[in-house]
Amino acid sequence: MAKNVQETDKVADARKKAQAQVRAQERRTAVMWVVIGVVLVGLFAALVAYIVRQSEVADVGAGDQATPTVATENGGFPVGTTGVVGEGLDDSRVRVDVYLDFMCPICGVFEETQGPVLQQLREDGTADIYYHPISILDRTSQGTEFSTRSASAAALIAQESPENFLGFIEAMFLNSPEEGTPGLNDAQIQEIAKVAGVPDDVVAKIPDHAYAEWVRSATEQASIDGMKGTPSVAINGDMQDPRANPGDLNWTQPGALLQFVQDAASE
After folding, report:
1. Which residue from 88, 105, 198, 199 could staple onto 82, CB 3.0 to 4.6 Å apart?
2. Are 184 and 150 in contact (CB under 8 A)?
3. Residues with Cβ within 8 Å of residue 6, at least 6 apart in sequence
4. CA distances from 67 to 155, 161, 171, 250 (A)
5. Which of 99, 129, 113, 108 is CA-nearest to residue 255?
6. What angle do CA 247, 250, 254 make, to 5 degrees?
7. In whole angstroms, what separates CA 184 from the centre of its chain?
8. Buried b (16+ CB within 10 A) or exposed e, 144-157
């Protein structure tokens, strides 16, 4: 009898061990599939991001391309006393050309510190400001061509919603991406444009990148005109480069831009 009990206990122990091994194998299998699932999700997310990025790049410059009629021959959008592109201008005033790239962090500093100065100079009739959105930093946006796309959006707004152009520039630099990142996608640029007051029908056209080729041409022209980087400033057609010419405008010095333009107006 005792022998039968011992044998039964051995059988039960063996069964328990076998069941434990099965459960352990099931847990290992479950963990393995979880890991595989995580890897697959990660790969899928990376693939989606790649496809989205590639589709954005492929679209830049595709389709019908346009030239903004409100731009000058050298690619500037003039803004006078009214704050509206193409309005309130006077050739007798000092001409200030500002070259900017929405991926440029120093351009953001320029907008923050010198934007109010430019506004004062415009509103008091001392100067007309010509804004040049260009794309010299596409190479730093991981293939998304953010500089070109954002400059195309600015050109679109200058053309079709000129009263919101300055607001768009300010809002873009308030949300400026870090250099070396993919930058903002088209949907994010559209949201910024909405915040700046751009009408929905114009906002809807931003992903068309209709002015991408014009932006590239304007960027080439800026280089021909002597622009060596962003931000750059030209006063009455003379590109300012204080590193090469000590007497040129150095806008990083407090009050320098205001004084320089006022002096030019009094000549």
Report:
1. 88
2. yes
3. none
4. 9, 15, 24, 32
5. 113
6. 125
7. 5
8. bbbbbbbbbbbbbb
- Span of 30-44, 73-87, 112-126, 144-158 with lowest mean pLDDT: 30-44
Query: And the tokens for 133?
Result: 């959105």
Percent of all residues in the chain with a pLDDT value above 70, rounded to a whole number: 76
CB atoms within 10 A of CB 107: 24
Which pLDDT score is estimated for 64? 72
Total-model pTM:
0.78
Q: Which residue spans within 159-237 are E strands per DSSP?
A: 232-235
Residue 66 tokens read as: 């346009």
**Residue 99: exposure state from Cβ atoms within 10 A (0-12, 13-18, ≥19):** buried
Query: Taking the CB of residue 59, how many other CB atoms lie within 10 A of it?
Result: 16
| Kind of pairing between the strands at 77-79 and 94-100 | unpaired
Side chain identity at residue 11, one-letter code: V
Residue listed under structure tokens 């906002």: 203
Average pLDDT, the chain: 85
SS3 call for 98: strand
Task: Give how far the C-alpha of residue 26 lies from the chain's centroid of Cα atoms, to the nearest Å.
Answer: 50
Residue 93 C-alpha from the chain's centroid = 32
Q: Are 170 and 115 in contact (CB under 8 A)?
A: yes
31 or 198, which is more confident: 198
DSSP 133: E
Q: Taking 90 as the threshold, does the pLDDT of residue 60 lie above it?
A: no
